[in-house]
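Hey, can you fold this one?
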Amino acid sequence: MERVLPAPCSVVFRSLTEPQGLARWWGPDGFAIPSVESDLRPGGSYRIAMQPPEGNLFYLAGEFLEVAPPERLSYTFRWEDPDPEDRETVVTLSLRDAGGSSSGLVFTQGDFATERRRALHEEGWTQSLKKLEELLRLHRPESRGEGRLPY
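Sure. Predicted structure:
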């Protein structure tokens, strides 16, 4: 997936990694994120609690493989108590300056055990990245300061 996001790479990277920011945009539409734990360093771990609109709280977790602000972030992604069709995948997010205080984002995740699980993740990430883009639209360098986050 590729997106152009309306904020500089430094702001986007922080929104991708800081627990307070993640809780504002992570997850499919309607999901709440009650907690985000993160040890942002190669070899460090993270754990995100996700609450669907109707249903039980569940968790995803993983380890950071690469943390290179503000250009690149890579981590493992696994569900706690996974669906039988799930397996651990690797997420990589690469950022580049897209000019005009915008950032180009390239997102990859894989390999999936089944096409059904890949499609489910694609839908979730599409909704999540749309929420991130909307959150970043609140950030206006000229009015909020170049390094200030929109939360």
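The chain has four helices and seven strands. Let me know if you want another pass with a different chain boundary.
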